[in-house]
Structures are given as C-alpha cells and as structure tokens.
Batch of 2 targets.
Target 1
Amino acid sequence: MASVSVRIAGAHGDGVESSGALLIKVAARTGMHVFAYRGYGSIIRGGHCWYQVRLGSSELKSYGEGIDILIALNQESISNQKSRLRDNAVVIYDPSKIKVEELDGKGYRLVPIPLLDIAIAASGDPIMRNTVALGAVLKLIGINIEAFREVIKGQFGRKGDVVVEQNMKAVSGGYDHQGVQTLYSIEGDGKKRYALDGNTALSIGAYAAGCKFYAAYPMTPASTILHWFASHEDKGVMPKQVEDELAAINMAIGASSAGVRAMCGTSGGGFSLMVEGLGLAAMIETPLVVVESQRSGPSTGVTTKTEQGDILFAMHASQGEFPRIVVAPRSVKESFKVAAEAFNLSDRYQVPVIIMMDLYLSEHVETVEVLGVDGVSVDRGKLVTENKEEGRFKRYLVTEDGVSPRSVPGHKGMEFVAGSDEHNELGDLVTDMYAGLDWAIEVRKQMHSKRMRKIDTMLKNETVFVPEIFNETADHFLVTFGSTTEAAMEAVGILNSQGMNFGLVSFSYLMPLDKEKTRKMLEGKKLINVEGNYTGQLAQVIRMNTGIDITQSILKYDGEAFTGELIAKEVVTLVK
Amino acid sequence: MAEVSTAAKQVLTSGVKPIWCPGCGDYSVQAGIMKALTDLGIERENVLIVSGIGCSSSMPHPFSTFGVHSLHGRLLPVAAGAKLANDELTVIGAGGDGDGYGIGVGHLVHNARRNVDITYVVMNNEIYGLTTGQTSPTSLFGAKTKSTPFGSIENPENPIGIALAAGATYVARAFSGDPMHMAQMIKMGIQHKGFSIIDVFSPCVTFNHTNTYDWFRQRVYKLEQAGHDATSISAAMAKSLETEATNWEKIPIGLFYRVEKPTYSALDMTLQKGPLVKQPFPTKQQVMDILEEYK
C-alpha cells in the first residue's frame, strides 16, 4: 500500500486537532510524506470535527479519499464517518463509550481499546485517551514508539520528564494493546521534512522577503497568518490587529508608503471591505500585497469550508481600471514562493498583488523537503533616494515602461503628495478646479495610460504569466488553478495508470495573462476545467483571454476539497 | 492668519493652490499647521500630511512636505500605518467632520485608544461642502441643508467627548477665526507624544449660513482663561458636554485634556529596535532558523 489515511474524529474540544498535529509530526520525523486536512465547524466545544492524516512513502498530492484507520472518539464519529470507511478499514474505539453494531458485517477490522481507562491509569487525564489511540495507530503503520518520545520531549521537555513519561505510558498502552499489530508498511526514508500548512508557508515567504508589517482583522481562514506574525513579533515583524478590514488595508498602504514592505490579509467578506483601498494603492502606485483566503460564499457562507469562488471578484474588485497581479499558489511549497515573489513584483511594478489562497490551501499540511529559501532575493524596483532632476521630484514621471521612480518620506528633495485623485507627474491634482481643461484632459490620458502600460511591461519582463503544462502530448487535459492543481495531478496519475493518456494545464498567475502563449498552449486540445466553484471562473478567464471555450467541466461547490480519486472518477464518467 | 516668516513659508510651500473658496476657514488651518511646523523647526522631508476626502483633503497639496491624499474616512489608518513604519516622521492627519466623524469615526476611536503618536486636525464646518451642502454628523439639530430641507432631526455628535472616551491623550479645540490660538493648539498637539486631536471650527462660507465666523465669535471662549483643569478627564468631559447643555450658547475652545501615557510605538516590541523602515531584512539563516520549528 502506497499510503494510509488516518482519520481522527470527535467533538470540538476532544483534542482532535492536537492529536492530528502530533501524528503529523511523528510521521514526518521518520521521513514519511504527510498530507493532512481537517474538517471542523465554527464552534469551540461540541459539534463534529475530524482530522485526516494521510501518510505515504512517496509524495502525496491530496489527503486521500476514504479512511483506512478511523479513531472514533464519540458515537457520532461512527455514524458520520462510516460512509467514508474503505473496505478492511480499521476502527479504533473505546467499547465502554461507543457502540459499533452499525458497522457489523461490513468486513471492517474493529479494534476496541479501553482508551479512557488506560489514559486515566497513565496520567489521570481523560484527554490522554487520544494518545492511547495514537499509540495503536503507530503500531498499525509500523512507526517506532521512540519517534513519538522524541517529539513529545521536544514539545513538553520543559514541563519536565513527568509529562513525557505520562505520554509514553499512554502511547504504549495503545501500542502494546493485545490484538494491535502492524498491518500497513509505510516506509519513511529518514529525511526530516518540514510539515507546514499553506498559511504558514506563505507567512514565512513574506517574512523572508522582508515583509515587516502585517495588518488584519480576524477572519477564517486567514487568521492563522495574523497568528504567525504575532507569534514571531520577536523576529522583527509588526503584526497589527485592527478594527476592521478598511483599517487593515489602509494601514498597510500607509506603512508601504513610508517604505516598509507591508501586507494585509483576510477572507472574501473582509476583502469586500478592502476593495476601495485596493484602488487607492493602485492609484498612488504604492506597493501592496493582499492575501485573500477564500471560503464558501456568498456572504458569511460556510465559514469553515473551502471554495475557489472569488477569483473573478479579485480580478475586478474596485472601480476603474488599473493593473494588478492576481495569483493563486498551487501548493504549500508554492505558497512560500509566491509570497516571497509577490513583494518583488509589487515593488517592481508598483501594483497591488493579490494572493488567492483558499481554506483548503491555507489549512492543509504537507511535508516539504526544500522550501526554496535560497531562491529568495529582494528587488525594490525604482525606489530612489535622490532627485537627479531640477525642481520638485516627479514621483509620477511618465515613462516608457509605465513605472515611475518612487520615494519615501525621510529623504530631502524627494517630497511629493500621493493623491487618490488623478494627478500629474508631480502628484499635483488635475481634478477639481482643473477638470475639463484641455491640458488636464491630456494629463489624465497620459497618466492613465502610463499606469495601464505596466501590464505590457510585466508581460514582457516576467515569465510567470503563463500556465504550466504537464504531459504535453496527452489526449485530454485537466485545466486547473490554485489549490485544485495537486489533486488534479493526482487524478492524472490515477487515470494514466488505468491506461488513459491525460495531461494537465495549471494556472498559478491568473492576472495578467500572456494571451498569446496561453492560447497557443490550449488551442486544439481536449480540455476539462476542474474548479472549486459553480460557474467555472477559470474557464471564463480563459475564454476572456483566449477565446477558447472549454465545454466540459468538473465543478465542486459543496465546501469540501478535491482529491485525485474523486476527480478521476468524475473524469471517467465525462469522457466515456 | 497666523504669522510665519516669508523664508520659512517658502521652504514649506509647494506653490500648489488648495481648492477652498475665498474666506474658507481651512486657509487659517493651513497657516496654523505651517506656523506650528516652522516654529518647531521640523524638516519638510520628515513631515507627512495625510488627508482623506472632502474640502479638507486639499491640505497636503500646498505643502512641500510628503503627503498622502487618501480615501474618504481612511486618513487615520493610512497615517497610523506610516507612523508605525517610520517613527521618526511627524505625521499630521488633516480631515473634515464628514470624513472623520462620519464615515471614518471608527478609526478615530481606535487610533485614539492605541495612542499612536499622530496629530489629527479636523476642519469641522458642520456641513458637507465639497458635495454641495448636505447635513454632517456635527450639523446642529434642525439644520436646513440640501439633504435635510425641512431641518435635521438628528442630534450632532460630540467629537470632543468621543475622543476623550476613546482615550485620546491630547484633546483640544480651536477656531479658524482665532488663528494664533489655533496654531498654538496644533503646535502643542505635534509636541505631544501620543494621539492628539484638534477639532477646529472652520466655517464654510458657501454652504453653512448658520455656523458662521460671527456665530462662533459670539459663542466661543477660551478654556485657558476660564480656569479649566486640563489634567482632569472628568472636567474635560464636563466641558465637552457644555455646548449642548447651553444649547450652543457657550462653546469652549482650547485644551480640554492632556495626559502623558506611553505611545503605541513606545510599547511595541519591534519598535524597540528602531524605526521599522530602518530595520534590516532577515538573512537566509534567520529564515532557516524559523523553519526549524516546523521539522
């Protein structure tokens, strides 16, 4: 077996999340590949939640369809999860609390363990029953118990050996429980990989790029970026929780206009409030990175579930026309790279960069061997500290490439006013008392086309604004963007192993797009767009840019994430 | 107008004309800010004037300092963001009553309680001028405007009271008809370490025919000459309520309240190492060290 999916299920407050995190860490330490995702509700105690941790001996591209090992911490976990159990799935449960009659006769391997009794005996703490169950999982997949000790020591070391020993007693209770034996052989290669989620990778990418200011109002699933900056304040960053998203974006603009690399982040609802600020950044040509982690909409929507429904919104948000970059990272690793790149692009072209995450990408955990820190470089574009011309500094100098020299306060002779009104090269307004005068009409034309020219410059200078194609000679291609890409890649593998010949075209950067190259790549191919929304927003973007109409699609808007298996199944019914 | 020497004026003047009508109270505010900056000898490259939208938003343009003419109601977050990014700057917010007490009032409350070290000058004319005369959050009850032709049935806001309740550490009020006093209030505000607000009665000569220069002249009196204790928050709060209590017959101007409290920057962990904009980018090793947490 190439991989095993372990699902821990229970109520909020049962320690499901921390148990999942612990399993991820232990498995990653042994050199296993991990892909994990969690399902939860907007509730602190009660309800139902789960954490699925998929472990493999080679790279994984989704959290896996179906459950191989279920840890059921309450009765609801049996009834809620039974439809996802694979044939021969193992179900670990405490027989004193949970009845499993509904699973009878299905061929599941039932493993009753007195989790609570063992936990109490080991530590006196009932929450430790999760650790007992984890012990059984370690045995089932053949992870040495010492790997667990190492992780626990790292986590609780400072609290003293007592806690470590309590944990070891609990985990051994499950590991050594009679009837528990190794059923799966997942081999770790001993390499210690990073295990992190998309928001963490993005935060570290931003940090590496020198982002020093992050402003946000808490909103799932973007809040963990704020938490990251807050918990790394001692590393020279300033996290700022503010009164609303209007403040978040405008504070970031203020910080950026003073010369600091700044970012703000939110989900769709908060992004709706940021829209006016986005236009301000564009108009005063102040660099800005905005993170929008999408969740099920519209309005409050499904607060803890994923969707890719906001890309057209992000591409067109705010009045008037202005250049912007919209990018949807396709994996945890790419979240790091995109964030680090975003600050250079934003500085180089003085345009807002919107990073489109989604709940799935923000929150799922992947193991990554190399994140790409060596590839991070800093380019601040035309940031200048000295005025080489006579007279006042021309902050909005009309240039061929559309990008003007930029100054920040503190430098003599570089003063200017950044105006949200249309302005001339000096930054002086050409609206109000001058509106309609012939020269003012001419300035407006010049300045608007100067800004818009930056799109051509970006397309000319950068290589990122085209999709990537895999298996170019395939008969059919899945077409994806952002976080759906990995699952689609997994689907391609499954389909091709069944004798089909599939390829993949995937978009990371969505705006601007190199129309010609994109058209050439897609032209004449059999395409199926796979997206996490109802209307096929990527297909619309493709049609708008290339005229190519994709007629077959797999669209998902139930709040759950794609897996390779799921896509492959849908594809088979489509192409039959 | 407040008196500024010609030489100093030239240094701080860009030559750009503001959009104000002849006689507008905002000219005095411009002169007041200029006098305060000149008196304090602050170099123009270290000054950032941030405005929002409305007549008041013209303020940065006649200055040769740095400026941001931002969005309606959003000048405070822009100003606060810039101040946190570079604590060495003198950051002045210049807004109006619609901008700061209407659409952007939330930011007033929160930046006051944060005690960000910026000076916020509000040109309060009790009317929306640039949109041609609608009611404002500070328009008097019964005010007849384009949007309230039969008289406003809303009560005017008490910005001084709001600022005090929110925790502003310097709260003052001035009147464009007394420019020397106003310049003094602004100057003290800039000198004050923390969030300063100066609410300035700045008459709109075009759309507000009630709250005119004369109307104010007959009503304002100086707190400094009335034995007010500006170290007492309760005395300040009581004074802020006096206008309404006297049905706008007695309007105190001057310093309501001033208290020394640590500024946001003084308390912020990161800023202990100097202005954010001057702090180095992380080295590759520092990034790798952080990544170790995730192994």
Note: Chain B has one domain: 6-294.
Target 2
Amino acid sequence: METATIEKQIEVNQEGYLKDSSQWSEDWAKKIATENNIPLTPKHWDVLHWLRKKHEEGVALSIRKVGNSGLVDIKQFYGLFPGGPLKIASKIAGIPKPVSCI
Amino acid sequence: MEDVLTKPIPAVAAVRENKKKETVKKVIIICSKGTLEDVYAALIMANGALADGRDAKMFFTFFGLDAISKKKADHLHTATVGNSAFMPAMPTMMGGLPGFEAFASHMMQKQMDKLDMPHVTEFIQMIDAAGGEIFACKLAADMFKLKKEDLLDEVKDIITVGEMYALADGEGAHFIFI
C-alpha cells in the first residue's frame, strides 16, 4: 500500500503549544499524546474534541468546567491525562495553555 | 521541509528536562484560619498544585477546621472588624453593626460565584477527586470537640503534628502556612 505524508510547518510556542489551533490534526494529537506517554482512547478523543469546541466558542476553560461537561468527572479527567490534566489535554487538543487558577 | 509529525520538538524536550529539575513536587498546606479569604487561598493553592501536576496535602487546624466541618464549611465569613484592608474608606465601627459581617461575606461569595469559584465543599471535593489529601489536626479537633463524623467525608483522617510532618516525606516537599 502506498502512503503519502503531508509535510507542513507547524508552529509551536516555547512550551510546545500550537500557536495556531487551526493547524491541529488528529495526527498531531497522537504525536503529542505519545510524547506525554498517553495512549489515546475514545474517551480521550471525546474530551479533546469537547475542549476544541469550547475553545472555538470562546469559553475560558477550567478543570471544573471539564468536570461539569457530562463527559468525564474531575477524577476521570485526572485519570485520563495524569500530571496536570487541563495543561496536557490542551496541548494535545492544540489549544492555548489554560490560564485559570481554579 | 521536515516531517514535523515524526521529529521531536526541541521546545517540548526542554520542558520535559525542566520538569525533572522541578523543585516543588509536593505542597503541604496548613490552614489555621477560618475566614473566607484565608480558606480560599489555601484551597486555590492546593488545587492549583494538583492541576499543575504536583502533589498536594492539606492540614486544617484551629479555626481552619471550620472549612472542613459539615456545619460550617459553606458558611464561612470574612472579618469586617479589625480588617484594615476591608473597605478602608468605611468607618471601622460600621463593620461591627449587627448583620454587617454576614452581608459583606454574602457579597464576597456572590463575587466569587461570578468568577466561577466553587463553594468550599465543592472545592474540597475537587481537591479530593484530583488526588489531594485532606487531614484535620487532632489537638484542634479535640479542643473544638469535633469527631470524624462532624467533618466532611473527604477528610481522610484526624492526625497529629508528627504525622503531618510525615506527609512531607520524599523529595521536593514544601510547607505553606496560612
């Protein structure tokens, strides 16, 4: 089977967050998830797509809002993305680093 | 052009390197006060540590126990007397008027709701769900005649000072006293 690779320049900031969230792709998500040792399950994808949707709607995201999303509770969110869930999930979802303190 | 999807990003590698050097791995937050603003400061710091991938333990003592008491947790007040930072333009004796403190605390809580800040009990549940651990001080609990069942379900145990210090075992632990 022949495969083709799409080559394009993707810009990230110093911490590895996408500078332009429209450059995001599922391949990009898989790459960042692998770098963070997170195997992506359907539940992960649900959360990632939800985060992207909310970001596009202009919602300031917080862990509490993810917990109230109906997709996962806070404990499950920490379980899916261990070690700073919103920070890591945002990076994988290609949206800016969260700025909420709560 | 390089294949960006297969090559590691230098910036990411640098962040990971910094992570190894991270000096604050765990915070032990001691909350000895029961005023709204002090309790929130403790909760925000504990929750913020967990959200940032660090470990957090909380130890509530003296009036801080109000924050984890079933009866009082969601009814904390802010001091309007003897609090020079509170409405400095207002004559201090106003703060002593009956009901004023409850009113001021209510207004403050309303402002916090606007900022999407959870109430104390929900905050404690969030910290618990995030893997943080919450403890009560034995001496203070004895003094205020509080038993485990008087405290929120998320409170893991009533412990001694020595046991509180043991929470800091391991590398990179820091104490924060409020």
Note: The helical segments of chain A are 26-35, 42-56, 63-67, 74-80, 85-93.
